Amino acid sequence: MKSRIVGILLLVAMIAGAVxxxxxxxxTGSIAVGPVRTIQGVVGGEKTSFLEDSLVRQILAERYGIxxxxxxxxxxxxxxxPVQGMDFIWPSSQTALExxxxxxxxxxxxxxxxxxxxxxxxxxxxxxxxMEKQGILRGKDGVWFVKDFQKLADMVVSGRKWKEIGVAxxxxxxxxxxxxxxxxxxxxxxxxxxxxxxxGDVLSDSEVDTVVPRxxxxxxxLGYMERSSSDLFQQYMNTGIGAKPLVAGYExxxxxxxxxxxxAWAGLRKxxxxxxxxxxVWSAHPLVALTPVGKELVTAMLDPEIQKLAWERHGFxxxxxxxxxxxxSIPVDGLPSQIQQVVPMPSARxxxxxxxxxxxx
Amino acid sequence: MxxxxxxxxxxxxxxxxxxxxxxxxxxxSRSGTRSLQILSGSENESLQPLLDEFxxxxxxxxxxxxxxxxxIMRFLQDDSTGYDAVxxxxxxxxxxGDRSNRVKFLQPVAITPVVxxxxxxxxxxxxxxxxxxxxxxxAQAVRTGKLRFAMTSATQSNSxxxxxxxxxxxxxxxxxxxxxxxxENKQLRxxxxxxxxxxxxxxxxxxxxKDLFLASQYDAMVNYESVLLETNRALVATGRKPLRILYPExxxxxxxxxxxxxxxxxxxxxxxxxxxxAWMRSAPVQAKLSASGRRPGVxxxxxxxxxxxxDTSWGVQPGRILSPFPFPSSEVIRQALDLYQxxxxxxxxxxxxxxxxxxxxxxxxxxxRRAMRILLTPTEARRNLLQPASEDxxxxxxxxxxILWKGRAVGRDTAALLAIADSLDRLEPTGGTxxxxxxxxxxxxxxxxxxxxxxxxxxxxxxGMSNExxxxxxxxxxxxEFHRDIPVFSIRxxxxxxxxxxxxxxxxSSRVFDGTKDLARSFRQVRGYN
Lengths: 361, 530
What we know:
The complex is a heterodimer of chains A (361) and B (530).
Chain A: H1 2-27, E1 37-43, H2 48-52, H3 54-64, E2 66-72, H4 75-80, E3 88-90, H5 94-104, E4 110-124, H6 125-133, E5 137-140, E6 143-146, H7 149-157, H8 185-199, H9 208-220, H10 229-243, E7 247-250, H11 251-260, H12 262-268, E8 272-277, E9 282-289, H13 292-301, H14 304-314, E10 317-318, H15 348-359
Parallel strand pairs in A: 1-2, 1-3, 6-8
Antiparallel strand pairs in A: 3-9, 4-7, 4-8, 4-9, 4-10, 5-6
Helix pairs in contact in A: 7-9, 8-9, 9-15, 11-14
Chain B: H1 2-31, E1 35-40, H2 48-58, E2 61-66, H3 69-78, E3 85-87, H4 91-97, E4 103-108, E5 110-119, H5 120-125, H6 135-143, E6 149-152, H7 158-172, H8 180-183, H9 186-196, E7 199-203, H10 206-215, E8 220-224, H11 225-237, E9 243-246, E10 253-255, E11 258-262, H12 267-280, H13 283-291, E12 295-296, H14 330-344, E13 348-355, H15 363-376, H16 378-383, E14 393-399, E15 403-410, H17 414-426, H18 435-443, H19 450-453, E16 455-462, H20 472-482, E17 488-492, H21 498-508, E18 512-514, H22 519-527
Parallel strand pairs in B: 1-2, 1-3, 6-7, 13-14, 13-16, 16-17, 17-18
Antiparallel strand pairs in B: 3-11, 4-11, 5-8, 5-9, 5-10, 5-12, 14-15
């Protein structure tokens, strides 16, 4: 009788063990703190490979018991869209947060800018050479700064051709390709930056009419605009200088690419260039918690190890005071250690007017 | 006693373990069958050997289901279920179609531009060799009757859509992208209509144009650089002259062959997808792709064009920087494609030969009538971009062993179209089957000189085997003496004789569509060819 009880106990223990084994393997392959909860969110496309990173997923599961499921959406799109069933949204700008807050202030349990990335221009060696000759770029300690953005914007607006400014082999006119500002944050921020540049200072609501025709002209000359900055970046990298000579996007995208695609980067490193507009605008990445478990995700993202992975593997500069981002830990040339000249975006109201002008038929 | 009694406990134990293991295995096989269904542009059909290699080395079943890229866009818009991944020719069709953001992990696989291939001697006599080509020169050659070319349907296939948008862009002039207002411009419309008059053959698939060129003599086609290189290799291998490859400077567009996952929450599928995508983008496979005439689609990949494949004496320029024209906004693309279908494409004159023999009775005739309704009902036709243009002519011949009924609709005459649908509803199937005689009758309906103004084709819908009237050899000799390049396409359903229809396709440089599974779909497909 005793042995029967022992046998049954053993049986129970083994089944429990097997169930535990199967369960924990199904999640992360190692010990979890309590059950891992799957949480739902909407994120900007530029953060998808950070969220797919197995090192990031491992820390989230092991230390915080969180597994993330997400759908991709443009920042402005997600700020205006429905969020039922979501534990968090994670757009790529403060403005998107403001837009969201206007209608859903009560839904926000916590929001924290966990990462930052400056808006930059990606380009290619021969374009950089021509633009330096044109007096648009200046090089300092191996970093390219756009010292005369106004001149560059004028070139685009006045329809100068690549051939005229000394880039051989490129057909068509000078353009700065970006994402659809009505749907995606990088295009939205670029519109704000251009408006500031053409105005000579942060554009105020009363000055909108003086710059809007030129901003509109610049965007209308782009034709089809991608909805996601990650798709646009893919095209820039994969189709090359002919199709995408000059693109506006986040610094983080290039850094992440270089780290995660070592082999490809070896072939590209010498040809690819990053231009830092002076001044530029910050793309902040406010993580907005809508449920208690979403709040736990905010805590998790502030974890120093996650912050380190975010910079060293995905190129996001930290949004947390006291964390230093060292350019030497990333295999990309021409990275400034700090982004010094940053200008605020025009107000959300001003931006609405700019966007309306861009999309008017 | 104790030992004996302990046995059942161990038996429970092993039984329970076995159950557990079984349930483990079951869950693996349920979620991880290692199969992927990819909705793919037809230009990827030639990658089948690579797929076979992946499947055999990775124990997987990755399958391509071919659709035109523009159709893939429509699929994503309507109901993107039933497939695990999409692989059109250009990422723009995903951006335009994927409104619910379901496509994940989008990465290009290979790059190839849409270019023009022209018979070498013709290219030389036009003075196009050794200099940059502009769209206006192509239009000039069409206008003076020196050039006729084949191109895919802009409302089905990426290469046709890209060429069409390229024509609009080039004639508009300037570097700014096309706007909605430009589409209203009468002169621009006229110029594009005129260049499209040069189209002598059209198709729903870029790969098929290659087969057409290999089967018969044509002057020129708009197609991918990669397909032209394939065509040339085959032409040279059979002792014929390769086509001259030309890059219209002001109307060039790129195919970036993007491969993306349709998110479903099935992690086994997702892993297999990522495995397959990484394999397609790996250095050895990229090298194989460049040996098949594609440019690498992976940033930083080494591109060392094999001179035997990238023969520069054909005019191919592997070192060329590919500068495409800017694609217009989604609204402009949508309106432009509508405009192509209803106003600008070369009008078509199509004779539908409908089998109303006795064997068609019951479900089959209902299915045929339903398929015809898609074409004949304006709202249905419009939804499928099948609406007739103002100068289209549609003839209908219902046949058995004789012609049972004839009907004709010209242009967008809604009343006439609906009357035809009603007549077909009333007509009952009867009698034997005389396919070749019906095809001959159909060919006689085309007026002399009609090929200048219309794309001409016969579409035969049949479930049978010809057992009366003209035989296959008589039809063949009739067609040879007929001396006109009018294809007789077939849609077979039921137990139609494949070999008889294949013979007709070979004789008339056309193809047979399988209507046994989804007649309505194959019907839409065949409309891309006429």
